[in-house]
TrEMBL record:
Protein name: LIM zinc-binding domain-containing protein
GO CC terms: cytoplasm
Entries under PROSITE patterns matching the protein: LIM_DOMAIN_1, LIM_DOMAIN_2
Principal subcellular localization: cytoplasm
InterPro entries noted in UniProt: Ig-like_KY, Papain-like_cys_pep_sf, Transglut-like_Superfamily_Mod, Transglutaminase-like, Znf_LIM
Molecular function via GO: metal ion binding
Family: Belongs to the transglutaminase-like superfamily.
Record-linked Pfam families: Ig-like_KY
Segments of skewed composition (Polar residues): 110-122
Transmembrane segments: none
Region of interest: Disordered: 105-140
Lineage of the species this protein comes from: Eukaryota, Metazoa, Ecdysozoa, Arthropoda, Hexapoda
Keywords assigned by UniProt, alphabetized: Cytoplasm, LIM domain, Metal-binding, Zinc
Amino acid sequence: MYRPNFYESTCLRCSEIVYQVDRVGPLKDFTFFHSGCFKCKRCGTKLTLKTYYNNQHNQDDKEVYCCSHVPKSGPGHFDQTSVGIRQALNVPKSTNYVNEQIRGHRNDSIDGQQRLGTPNGYNNGGREGNTPPQNDPDYKYGRFDASALHIAHALKQTEIQKAYDKPREKPIDYYLARDEQAKLEMKHRKEEDDLYRKFARKREEEDRRMQSEIQDEWERELQRLAHKFEKELTTSRRSREDQNILTLKHEQQKEDLEKNMTIRKTKKKESLTRKLLEHERSETAALVDRQSSEMLELISVRRSEYMQSESIFLDDDINETVVAMEYPLVAPKPAPPALSKFQVYNDPVEFQDVDQIAITVAQEDQKTFTDLVRQLVGRCTSDIEKARTIFRWITVKNLNTMTFDDNLRGDTPMGLLRGIKYGTESYHVLFKRLCSYAGLHCVVIKGYSKSAGYQPGVKFQDSRFRNSWNAVYVAGAWRFVQCNWGARHLVNAKEAPKTGKGKNDSLRYEYDDHYFLTDPREFIYEFFPLQEEWQLLKRPITLTEFENLPFVRSLFFRYGLHFADDGYGAVVYTDDTGAATVRIAMPSDMQGCLIFHYNLKFYDSDEDSFDGVSLKRFVMQSVISNVVAFRVHAPCSGAFLLDIFANAVTPQEYLTGEPMKFKSVCKFKICCEELQTVMVPLPDCASGEWGPTKATRLFGLIPITHPEPLIFAGRAIELQFRMSRPLTDFMATLHKNGIEEKKLSKYVQQAILDDMITFNISFPEEGQYGLDIYTREVGSVSHNNNSSTEKHLLTHCCKYLINSSKRN
């Protein structure tokens, strides 16, 4: 699901550009704030998404206030907006249709905000079953006044989603004959054949030259050894035994020379191959550029000729005031897009039909690019749809499972895919070529990327993280496409291939829509072009700034996450107690389904324990409201790597108890330069977040007595929860460093009365304890008296950190 993410969005307070990771919003009328500027306009109190207020009596006032200073209307004051609210509130509740165009059918439980921009919402095109029949006598028009404040936000969002509305064009078959395009392809194929023959001749010449150089060097070294041997024999009188020793030494030197020359020959050949391959790729790219320009020119000329006599649009009732944006004959200069990805499309479901075309076409092998592209874009009616089908065709192809004939031509679609699999071709060249056959401008961009093997804090000083990607001109602007990352990713260490498997087996093919038409303000966190103008930003950043940006992955943006505090960079420094905190804010509609996890290890090694204790026990994860916090306490000075994972699951999926697969959303280098306090690990509880938030979110278990994850108690404590849905078989376990769990079991008691569950805990001694709570829903299977088995079958609900002291 996509959310508003506007280009060049500026902070309402300071008017400076707001970056994704430092952004609060969108708020009223899609305004944004820096997290540091998100303060009360009157008193400067720092606000959160739970404590801010808008002026409800002035639609033009977009500022934020605290509860004490938010403008309030006097008694008896009604303005036009207030009347609109009253009209909305006075809607008879007996009707079955309550503002269907905003909320949908009354049986749906999703709120208006979720409706907009979700697969289940109203942007999917088809609305059967959601809009009431207009001839229904119970249906009333105008039940909700448009000025009602609680729907004004939704109406504004609908307007923005329609910002890009281009008339549908006729497919390419209308204005360009297949045979004419195929003829140009055959001409290009001949040029490629000539170029490949040139490459082959060059390789043979260079190989002969290298062989000759190696042979000459070999002979010179042999002569040097022979001369040295003869000289040693004749310079002094030697016994037969000495002569034999000298002869054996000479033979050994010859063997060593042969081995060294073989190694040098291999290295020289590898170096020559890399040099030739780089040269060949450069010449091939230049040829593809020229051929792409020729293909684009042919398509543009035929399109213009057709438009002189016929309408290019499929819709006959095109409003004359709607001026279609003519696709440019010459590729425009790079510039920031005027519309964001969200404004162009807000959900991949919008491409359901064209995606299916790509998936169907991918089931067969095409011999020519003309045939392939005609099958892909033959029914596409916009430049976006054309780019989409090409992108999805590429991302559908799983090269791990594909087999290729050895006699495939390199200048065919399948030949290029074979080249990509074995490293001689690239996705970005294939995408550029296919775009030219579809009449789309496309460029290859080179630069750095935070790709596999990169860690936060690493400097880009060599070619290790060099990468290439595309920009395609659609929807009136240049937009980024990364087919390689959109189609596949490297598996993590736990999923790494077993010994004996090839490099390609470490790649998992999994479609990621984030890398199709990615917003520049999100793309810049992972990719830095060598040419500044191809950042597509109004204010480009430097390489140093790119290195210092937080290391975030595509899921960070797909889940709509942002950092809750100012100043996060790739490296986070602890205070003198070894403490550092990373706080991530979730959008309101994701709070109920996002689950986070983390991993901590030493930065320069894979070691994840300190003095036999897992480093995870030096991190406290908690969730309060819409913010998840990771509080790191370094056990020693040095550098650590904090990897934060997330997954979106429903309560039903979580309650099955099946293992969940988390994916990385961001990483940080945690640096502890000086440690003045010895840190003690947290009690050995179940992994995951501390506090009762998870219990409420996934189990409907509401804390009555202790809503915070950290509790300060005396020698005993009582915890109470209210069940909002039936749960059974509760169990709590107490943990303390240095004491066995079994010895603490007698200090925990529980009781259920109606919908209340009460835990009574006493503590045998002062100190820090961890409390794990397990449960299951009514109807779950298990009746086993064995405590360990029962704990295994129950699902972890929540946990608390309790500091027991007589002083509390």
